[in-house]
Amino acid sequence: MAITTRQFDAVVVGAGGSGLRAALQLAEANLRVAVLSKVFPTRSHTVAAQGGVSASLGNEEEDNWHWHMYDTVKGSDYLGDQDAIEFMCRKANEVVIELEHFGMPFDRLDNGKIYQRPFGGHTSNYGERAVKRACAAADRTGHAMLHTLYQRNVRANTQFFVEWMALDLIRNQAGDVLGVVAMEMETGEVMILQAKATLLATGGAGRIYAASTNAFINTGDGLGMAARAGVALEDMEFWQFHPTGVAGAGVLITEGVRGEGGFLLNKNGERFMERYAPTVKDLASRDVVSRAMATEIKEGRGAGKDADHILLKLDHLGADVIDKRLPGIREIAKKFANVDPVKEPIPVVPTCHYMMGGIPTNMHGQVLAGHDGGAIVRGLYAAGECACVSVHGANRLGTNSLLDLLVFGKASGEQVVRDLASDSIAHQTLPKDAADRTLERLSRLDTAQSGESVAEVGAELRRTMQLHCGVFRFPDSLAEGVRKMNEVAQRAERLYVKDKSKVFNTARVEALELENLVEVAVSTMVSAHARQESRGAHDRSDFPNRDDANWMKHTFWYKEGNRLEYRAVNLKPLTVESFEPKARVY
Amino acid sequence: MVRREVVGAHYGLRDWLAQRVTAVIMLVYTLLVLLALVLLPNFDYGHWHALWQLPLMRYATVLFVVALLFHAWIGVRNMFMDYIKDTGVRLTLYVVVILALIAYGAWAVQILWGE
Amino acid sequence: MRLSVYRYNPDVDAKPHMQDYDIALEPTDRMLLDALIRLKAVDDTFAFRRSCREGVCGSDAMNINGKNGLACITKVADLKEPVVIRPLPGLPVIRDLIVDMSQFFKQYHSVTPYVINDTPRPENERLQSPEDREELNGLYECILCACCSTSCPSFWWNPDKFVGPAGLLQAYRFIADTRDQATNERLDNLEDPYRLFRCHSIMNCVDVCPKGLNPTRAIGKIKDLLVKRTV
Q: pLDDT tens, A514-559?
């Protein structure tokens, strides 16, 4: 079947924070770049980030990147690669200042510098006390950042393909990636976008859980594409549960609330975090706080008539501070929790929020070919939440995600520019069957007259994840989860959509998204079942302790054969001494 | 023909301002007339006629009419801009309205100074 | 819950029509978007945009019982049934509730929506006082959902020439930014009977803005600056 092919120097899949940051680098280097996005760029999920982006600017109190690095290593529960973490923390000031120069409307201090607030897990002098490191634009930092980056791309004349969905990577015999097969949603037309460099920046996949702070578009498309193309997925068992999602609704309430001085209460009105983290209390890292909350609820000290949530108190901050620093939170609380936080606490529960794992890359965004050695997949790059560098290890610190987007978005963009300059080769020949597998998938959906409902299989997938792979994980339940998820995966091979139209067929899009979610869910369940220890966000009832002797290693899941391999954590930073693993107390 | 948007006419502000200034003039004039009516000792033809013999009244009225015509021109043209898409039709309508407004102005002067 | 929904698929329909649905809601379904997702589970041919489901991405703007709004932050309890749902008015319909927003974004792009500052980049951040930063409040929060522009008659009549409330709000966002140096060029770009002066201050935009922003006030401030520079 004839299929249109268009050629670019680089294709960026995804137009959130990292995609836009990378695209900017490419467009300003005068490369022919196509940026694909399922939604208009400013609708990407970076828009929902609230609290801030971390950088040790030290605008209000002493700070430096060594402390930031220590906090990130400790936050990762020593699973983060220390070279990448050093790279990120050292680059933080540069990329945040750059963002300010792009026009980012940061809040300001009286001296005109960027306003910074404390955030969970960020401390001064290696864990002594909480430090003001999160650069914020009220509680709309992600929104301000995404719009600023988009605006800067408008200035750079970046070429966007809005409402295009990338479906599959194209790989040749040698394993090089030569572009993507993509679909224009408005017309249903499928095309090959051939590129010397393909950068995946597709964001998270939090939609594998029933209760999630993530947007509907967060379906792990890049991970699905990578897995189908034989690329491994790294550390998929590590999913961050954000302590404060609105109970019942899942909508995020920023950690900035606690940064500004809010705290958590159980049904007795006790500030229970004092028991779990005596030093920084409510500003412990997220895995610690979420586990504490889940424990309170499990032991019957939850609030509400079903004792099923925790209260986030902030009325003592006063209406002025709330309206100035947390206006969006007040809006969300009123709309989704029916409470005005100026008067009452907000009911919250730990809610799936962030994927620490992802497509394995080095710190230049180059995708690793496998678990052993540093070999890369030529032509393929990844950045942002869909990538696993790994700087977040087993648990990400708040505000480090926006930093990740900026640092690794830029670094991968720079790497692409370097690679295309050094081997400014002509486009390689596409394999004859480049789009066959994709077209086959589409034609199955187009011709199926019966089969499984996308809504039902999706709901079963989310239920299974929620039930079998939550904050606390149990061996039998995980085994059952693996079995159920394999069933879900089989059902997902027989999806049926009633809508056969070519024009903006959202039913087909949702079916294709579900196929990607399945890859993410299966890899998560299998990886979690295999990791016999508790580390960061992964908490096993049968192995309650961290096991550095056997498990200081990254999980690599391969779709083919549903197989797991491992790779040792890199404890050696670029220039400084290693932070040796020690017990993690906040 | 290439569909090209042409913008930056560099007017609009003048008209927008004029509309506000003329509105103020009309308001002041209206108050003046009301005041004159109240102060009129007797509301009969003689007094009414005498009132309009005053140069102040005549020139104030001319000013008012000019303001009114300008105000009307801007308002009517605004409506044409909103609803009339064809440039030729719009231009024709502009001309018709301008001619009509000039005629009204002349008529007003004739009323004030004619016998 | 009873919904009356605008349906049009150019592949199969000769012309648009309204279709009625009765949707059973769960107690957790609080927002109109929840109802639309239930609807889609029943009839997957129904097409609409949605993403963040918390009112920050701006995807699910639509006309709900005659008023523009975001489905994800419109409570079902507040709606009179049957809930009549139509696409945003004044833009071409692609399919069902999905409209072609290119004209809207074209106007947004026409106001050079980025900070222009050609002075050498300082080593650290460009300083801005908290008061100067405060000027951007009520402006930068725009989510480009198009509720305002598509409720504005002036935008309906001249979408190609009138920038519209959303675009003008953003135009002022960059004028108001003390770091931006292109105020004069920006004012030049707007001093036009169509681009700016189609606004007749009827304030439909203020009435519908889901983020509570006030484009009319921003437009007034642009006019103030134009007056200031002329008079």
A: 999 999 999 999 999 999 999 999 999 999 999 999 999 999 999 9
End-to-end CA distance of chain B: 57
Asked if B7 lies within 8 A of C194 by C-beta distance, the reply is: yes
The whole-angstrom separation of Cα A166 and Cα A146 is: 21
B6 part of contact set with chain C, CB < 8 Å: no
Distance CA C137, CA A514 (A): 39
Mutate to test the interface with C, among A506, A509, A512 (most CBs of C within 10 A): A506
Contacts of A392 by beta carbon, 8 Å cutoff, 6+ apart: A72, A75, A76, A80, A238, A354, A356, A400, A401, A404
Phi/psi of residue C4, nearest 5 degrees: -120, 110
Q: Report d(CA A208, CA A219) in Å as an integer.
A: 8
C226 touches chain B (CB under 8 A): yes
Nearest to A556 by CA among A204, A237, A232, A239: A232
C-alpha distance from residue B105 to each of A353, B53, B66, B110 (Å): 72, 19, 7, 9
| CB–CB contact B10 C191 (8 Å) | yes
Predicted local confidence at residue C189, as pLDDT: 93
CB contact set of A159 (below 8 Å; sequence gap of 6+): A27, A32, A33, A34, A35
Please say whether the beta carbons of B89 and B80 come within 8 A: no
Contact A144/C140, CB-based, under 8 Å? Answer: yes
What share of chain B in percent tops pLDDT 70? 92
Q: Output the CA torsion sign for A335, A336, A338, A343.
A: negative
Chain C contact present for A137, CB below 8 A: yes
Within 10 Å of residue B113's Cβ, how many Cβ atoms?
Answer: 10
Q: Which domain holds residue B82?
A: 12-113
Ramachandran region of residue C126, left (φ > 0), alpha (ψ -120 to 50) or beta?
Answer: beta
Do B13 and C223 lie within an 8 Å CB cutoff?
A: yes
Q: Smallest Cβ distance to A216: which of C50, C105, C130?
A: C50
Whether chain C has a CB inside 8 Å of the CB on A507: the answer is: yes
* Residue numbers of chain B with a pLDDT score lower than 70: 1-8, 115
SS3 A303: strand
Is B5 part of any domain?
Answer: no
- pLDDT averaged over every residue in chain A: 96
Among candidate residues A90, A117, A228, A286, the one labeled active-site is: A286
Chain C residues in contact with A458 by the CB 8 A cut-off are none
**Residue A46: what residue type?**
T
Q: Which positions ≥6 away from B94 have C-beta within 8 Å?
A: B77, B80
Is B92 a domain residue?
yes
CA distances from A170 to A167, A366, A374 (A): 10, 16, 22
Phi-psi region at A492: left, alpha or beta (left = phi > 0; alpha = psi -120 to 50):
alpha
CB contact set of B105 (below 8 Å; sequence gap of 6+): B65, B66, B69
Say how many domains are in chain B. Answer: 1
Residue that is written with structure tokens 């006082």 in the block: C129
Residue C99 has phi, psi (to 5 degrees) of -105, 160
Quick check: A1 pLDDT over 60?
A: no
The separation between CA A180 and the C-alpha centre of its own chain, rounded to angstroms, equals 22
How far is Cα A408 from Cα C58, in angstroms, rounded to an integer? 27
**Residue A286 appears among annotated catalytic residues:** yes
Is the minimum CB–CB distance between C220 and chain B shorter than 8 Å? no
CATH number, domain containing residue B43:
1.20.1300.10
ipTM at complex level: 0.98
Residue B22, domain member (yes or no): yes
A98 vs A108: CA distance, rounded Å: 16
Residue B59: inside a domain: yes
Kind of pairing between the strands at C98-99 and A190-200 = unpaired
Q: Which two tokens stand for residue A151?
A: 């605006």
Q: Where are the alpha helices (DSSP H) in A29-79?
A: 65-75
d(CA A126, CA A107): 27
